[in-house]
Amino acid sequence: CLATLIIMLVGDTYTLINYVSFINYLCYGVTIIGLIVLRWKKPKIFRPIKVNLLIPITYLAFWAFLLIFSLYSEPVVCGVGLIIILTGVPVFFLGVYWRNKPKCVNRLIESITCWGQKLCFVVYPQGGVAEEE
């Protein structure tokens, strides 16, 4: 959100749409790659919808063409889009991957979560602060 607000203040809406569309198409392609890998590595798991592999492979070919064309035609926009995606990596490692965090870090994350929930008027987590009457 912070990066989007900064881009909105500095740039124009067209540039923001380009950043978001590049990020979306990159995520769609990675999802399709994940689908193909799962079909190959775990063919026996239950799938409520199963399509012929020709469909995702064809989609992936068009996706690769469009992504390469985007990287060629607007490398700066694509680079900024990748930087925006990579800003989530430290958050992932701090919040999800790092399991044995010190208590002070857990308290900091809980207070930030609680503050964000109060700011956005959302539900408190279970075991959190009770509602004041």
UniProtKB/TrEMBL annotation:
<keyword id="KW-1133">Transmembrane helix</keyword>
<protein>
    <submittedName>
        <fullName>AAA1 protein</fullName>
    </submittedName>
</protein>
<dbReference type="GO" id="GO:0042942">
    <property type="term" value="P:D-serine transmembrane transport"/>
</dbReference>
<feature type="transmembrane region" description="Helical">
    <location>
        <begin position="51"/>
        <end position="73"/>
    </location>
</feature>
<dbReference type="GO" id="GO:0015179">
    <property type="term" value="F:L-amino acid transmembrane transporter activity"/>
</dbReference>
<feature type="transmembrane region" description="Helical">
    <location>
        <begin position="16"/>
        <end position="39"/>
    </location>
</feature>
<keyword id="KW-0472">Membrane</keyword>
<dbReference type="InterPro" id="IPR050598">
    <property type="entry name" value="AminoAcid_Transporter"/>
</dbReference>
<feature type="transmembrane region" description="Helical">
    <location>
        <begin position="79"/>
        <end position="98"/>
    </location>
</feature>
<dbReference type="GO" id="GO:0042941">
    <property type="term" value="P:D-alanine transmembrane transport"/>
</dbReference>
<dbReference type="GO" id="GO:0015175">
    <property type="term" value="F:neutral L-amino acid transmembrane transporter activity"/>
</dbReference>
<keyword id="KW-0812">Transmembrane</keyword>
